Write the structure tokens for this entry.
Amino acid sequence: VRPPTKGRAIEERFRKMNERPSPRPKSIGSERPEPRCASNVPMATVSQCSPSKPFITSACDVGATSLSGTVRSVLLNAVPVDPAVEDRVRELEIPFNKWGIDPYGIEQQELGRFFSALQFFYRNYFDVHVHGIENLPARGRAMIVGNHSGGVAIDATMIISASFFEREPPRLAQGMVDKFLGKIPGASQVASRVGQFAGLPEHAARFLEDERLLMVFPEGARGTAKLAKDAHTLVHFGSGFIRLALETRTPIVPVAFLGGGKAIPTVMNLSRLGKLIGVPYLPVTPYGLPVPLPMS
């Protein structure tokens, strides 16, 4: 029995719709002709993803259509890019494509804003002094291994700044951040676009295989949780970085960071309150909030 004419017309219509290729999604913004993936792990642009070489994870970046994307855009656009910083970003040995994005999703434009903002804190607010920067390899894989202190990761940002501002040619130190950062809305997007990713062994190994400069703090969050009176001591150092360096034949550059405990003089940590908001702890200073003090 042949179906009614109306039924055949509907079937034919759906058949043609299924055969029609799906339209290509439009890009967000005029500077990105293709959509891009970003998350708190190393990623590539969509055009570079292929089934033969899968990535660890994927998360679509909706950019300005999300609240975190809007806040991020407002904050970053409020920071003017220093022309001198922009020139140094161009000197970085990172394979940016024609849109200024590297295979991991690091963005040239946002690096300019990031270092333009850090420049004030590095040169004026904290007045950082660096010794032995010539021991940092100018090119190729290397692993910066340092102590951790200061309530929050001030030491990490200052080491990133020193590698960029003091080394010739400049280098981008890529840190292995704690995984809790991925739970903070917008934080993982901002961090990944300036080269800082979740601290997983597979991420670290991949960076080193690509001849990147890796920054590791074996003390982890326990290091930054040290009280001010213990700032110059060390807690347990994980040994995973040694195994990774041996497997990838990577030179280790030891770093000692002083002054973190004075910038944020932690007197106690609120662990329970921190867990409620998704962080390991909240440092408490004599003046209450964990706001860093100017140092020289």
In short: Confidence is low (pLDDT under 50) at residues 22-67.
